[in-house]
Design a protein that fits this description.
Elements: H1 2-9, E1 13-14, E2 20-21, E3 30-31, E4 34-35, H2 44-68
């Protein structure tokens, strides 16, 4: 589902069929690996990526963390 969101805003490709371990963030957590080219610094592609993917993710994380506090 989240991959469908990213595909609307940027070119992306799922690199793994099954989730892989990412214990460096949280023990027992698994995640899919995707490739999302962001473009060069200050390019239109990078600006689009930041506005449509990066900034909503940052605000979402901030909101989720505020519920834990």
């Amino acid at each position: 589902m989240i991959l469908n969101y990213y595909k609307r805003w940027t070119t992306c490709e799922q690199l793994t069929n099954d989730p892989v371990k990412c214990d460096e963030f949280e023990q027992g957590r698994k995640s899919h690996v995707i490739n999302m080219p962001m473009g060069f610094d200050y390019s239109l592609d990078r600006i689009r990526f930041n506005l449509s993917v990066k900034m909503p993710a940052i605000f979402g994380i901030m909101i989720m963390k505020s519920y834990n506090d």
